[in-house]
Amino acid sequence: MECLSISEILKKIEAGEIFEAVSSDYSFTIKIDDYVPYACAAVHDGHQFRKELWDNCIHTEYDRWYEEDPETKNMIKSHPIVIAGCDSRFEYDLNRVPEEAVFETAWGKKLWKTPLSEAMKNKSLQKHINFYKVVYALIEALESKFGFCTVYDMHSYNWKRWDREVPTWNLGTSNIDNTRFGDFVENWRQSLSEIEFPHNIKSTSLINDTFQGNGYFLKYITQNFKNTLVLATEIAKVYGDEYEQIIYPEVVSTVEKELVKRIPEHALSVYSAFKS
């Protein structure tokens, strides 16, 4: 893996190069092993938190971990194109619009002992801006090369906080063209429901049950690119204990191995239907 500036990353994408890099500000990673008509993303995988923010933050390290999406990058790491955040959403949230990306409160709790200065906010927002420059270049390159692409937008959520039964998998589709893509959303939902987990963990899959797909990452791509389907795909944190801060590696490995097979199969079916 290389450490590259944003301009260097953009040049490599524009040139169609194969590479793996971390951005020079260490805010995200990108890997392109091959140019294919699909990409995977884990925008909330990151846990880094700028040290200069530590003393001013009211939330604990566990509080932050609890609301992040740990291991989501590992679930998609084997795919040819993967982009993932390195920083905690508590510094800036890549799935929020820039104006709301730096939180003042988080999940009903004040975040900072004293309000952040504009300089501190802008330091974080620049990383948000840089990430989306690369996202734009990547999707533009894939649409230009293939005519159509699919993005698997991986997230996780805390299922134990719900007071009702919730699905293992949730697809959020409220901001995509369901008339155009509805059949392929259903195919993806069905495929995920067939995954068999260890420890008799149930595998259920529903659409817009816990979340509706209102994230900025999906909206940004959908609004800027007419021939890209973004599938906001959330897994309940059955791969760990959200209260004990424990990860079950064997469950993460199961998901990764299943997605190695299921994502390319699904992406090929979408591409076959929509390629120009």
UniProtKB/TrEMBL annotation:
Keyword list, A-Z: Hydrolase
Q: Which InterPro entries match?
A: N-FG_amidohydro
Keyword Hydrolase among UniProt keywords: yes
Q: Does the keyword Hydrolase apply?
A: yes
Q: Which GO terms describe its molecular function?
A: hydrolase activity
Q: Which Pfam families match?
A: FGase (PF05013)
The entry's protein name is: N-formylglutamate amidohydrolase
